[in-house]
Amino acid sequence: MKKPAPNAKPIKAKPAVKHAGLGRGLDALIAQPEPAAKGAVVRPPLAAIAKPAAPANERLAGSVLTVPATEIVRSPWQPRQSFDETALRELADSIKANGIIQPLVCRKLPDGRFELIGGE
User: Name one Pfam family in it (predicted).
Assistant: First the structure.
């Protein structure tokens, strides 16, 4: 083992560096409500107030509906014009055995039927 040089200074170990966090935490990102003055009326924000329910006959865009297959019509813009009979039969057998795994995407037509725009 080597002996240190006579005029060498001892090496001090560096203190462990404490890693700072990412910032001030979530409280800095999420605004906290101001405390209400004593006796003040606290009102909920407008977004928290319940809106009246839509009439039963009015459906919201993006809602999930179950409709009879007879009400679904093919889109005239369907890019696929010919279908392989074997693949179509396999799809029909799969639907019979497992049901529809991925929902179809349709839009309502003025005559009340639904136009298929996504899915098989």
Answer: ParB_N
